[in-house]
Amino acid sequence: MKIGILTSGGDCPGLNAVIRGAVLKGDRVHKAGFAGFRYGWRGVVDGDIMPLDRHSVRGLSRQGGTILGSSRTNPFEGPNGGPENIQRVMDENGIDAIIAIGGEGTLTAARRLTDAGIKIVGVPKTIDNDLAATDYSFGFDTAVEIATEAIDRLRTTAESHQRCMVVEVMGRHVGWIALHSGMAAGAHAILIPEQPQSIEQICEWVESVRDRGRAPVIVVSEGFHLDTMEEAHSHKGLDAFNRPRLGGIGEMLAPMIEARTGIESRATVLGHMQRGGVPSAYDRVLATRLGMAAIDAVFEERWGSMVSLKGTDVVNVSIADATGGLKTVPQQRYDEAALLFG
Ligand code: F6P
To answer: So where does Mg(2+) get bound (predicted)?
Structure first.
């Protein structure tokens, strides 16, 4: 059997470890052959394929990014898009099945293609940790580590100048990165999409910190919106899956806080720093296990399924379960963090 692997959507630390896990187990246990689709679904629709063998995955688990490249290509769009063309590309290259490593957009497309008869197994990937049907996704732990270190650093410069620091982190429409990095770094308020707040409440937290002689550190998720806003701030248009590109809420909040409290305020956007560089040890292990489980799922012909973490076990779920709705931060997780705000 020959299996094509693709990495699609925003990249994520641990992608290479999944590829390595799948190829090594596929080679040793199942005697499978592999090919890599370049730049996600774009490589599938265009037939842009690279050889992938056990030598090409040597030492990969610690390497950031993805050796296959990634893109936010929608496989149903463009002149070569759609299941018939994809099946033709697979047949021409002797590829029997696909392992698709991706987030919500990628897996939704994978589900539609599986419904049309393409043999696909999914692997969940996202720093946002927003995919349902898996407890954690690889990349999230690394992103939280990077954000936590950045917040720690911003705190010392904030204290030197008695400033308020507003730190914007990624996460799209869920607040997991903000919640975990904010708790780890002892932020004075954590603003997440699931919990809109008023500017008055935010300023109250900021002033109470200042009144204790401390420099306020506010962590805001890119998808957060004030209670006066209809939706998350977005001024960058839409991505290939017609979802708004988020970012900019930190720059919006800092001057509002300064104007209302008189405390000099600065915004820092961590941006793609959170996705770059080497994966954490946790993410390397999780990603390797998911890659190995994905190859087993292929040989068990579990088309339309996704490998997933439940507790400490790697299990199989349907892609439909994972893409049915976002995994948001539960009220109780927010409440326990909010006890320490201000
Ligand atoms: O989904 C991962 C993510 O990093 C989000 O947190 C963020 O909103 C988005 O991707 C950024 O996308 P791009 O890399 O296309 O700018």
So the answer is: 104
